[in-house]
Amino acid sequence: MSRKITIIGAGSVGATIAYTLSQDNIASEIVLIDINKAKVEGEVMDIIQGTCFRDPISIIAGDYEDAKDSDIVIITSGVARKPGQSRLELAQTNVNIIKSITPQIVAVAPNAMYIIVSNPVDILTHVFTKISGIPENQIIGSGTMLDTARLRCGIAEHFNVAQSNVHAYVFGEHGDSSFIPWSKATISVVPVDEYEQTMEKSGLDVDPIDKEAMLQYVQKSGGKIIANKGATFYAVSSSVCKICNILLASTDTLSTVSTMMHGEYGIEDVCLSTLVLIGPNGVQRRIEVSLTDEEVALLHKSADTLKDIISQLEI
Known about the structure:
Layout: E1 4-8, H1 12-22, E2 29-33, H2 37-48, E3 58-61, E4 72-75, H3 91-108, E5 113-116, H4 121-131, E6 139-141, H5 145-159, E7 166-167, E8 186-187, E9 190-191, H6 192-201, H7 211-229, H8 234-247, E10 253-262, E11 268-279, E12 282-286, H9 293-311
Parallel strand pairs: 1-2, 1-4, 2-3, 4-5, 5-6
Antiparallel strand pairs: 7-8, 8-9, 10-11, 11-12
Helix pairs in contact: 1-2, 1-8, 3-4, 5-7
């Protein structure tokens, strides 16, 4: 089946997403759009020359009109985060960018599923939801998919188990107010809080997990990578391509993506990540799993952090 994916923004993240998609069979057509025409043409040439060992695929450096009939539109445009800069400090500049992009892309691709990746992703997802006129079920922020991947990587490394055995999530903002609902974290079917004792009963020595250190690992990984190499793009690309796979699949999947809240956990009118059922029809519903009182309070704190920034923006 023909599947068309448009990516707006050919920076490190957008180009890496295009390359990752080109190496899979998710899409049969990829359109890459960027204000820097030479850059996007170079990226497309480099990517297409690496597709000779797969089924034929169309990859073009296009303009907005080339996004017509896209199944998915991925927005990555924005000013990159600098070393030491928080995602929220990017807010107004990148809000202005998404405000300029939105009317151009929705005019040609009103039926596409939209994945917002640009940072601060929760705020930009909120803005896009408010100004685009696109139905909410078609709008998904990449949210804490990447944070969740980092968490599972950290837990797997700590306990020396396969990442596929780790079932744990990051909720809230994709940023410094995120949190880990440890009450829902398991390794296979064993709650993380019981894992040490369970392994000891089986004759294996396991070090207890430092939950605060693990949260810091999740929250500070992006900043450390940016400080060391200038940008993050591999892991976020994998996360976004996973969302594409889910949206083009035949069944729904529970994922931590950013969507507009409508009273779940007592939170309204802000986009952040909780468990969301998404699939071929986009956002189906937010799943309100039971959390501890402390975890609900942390979710509210994250929502309030985002609302405070939004209240200071020109939208």
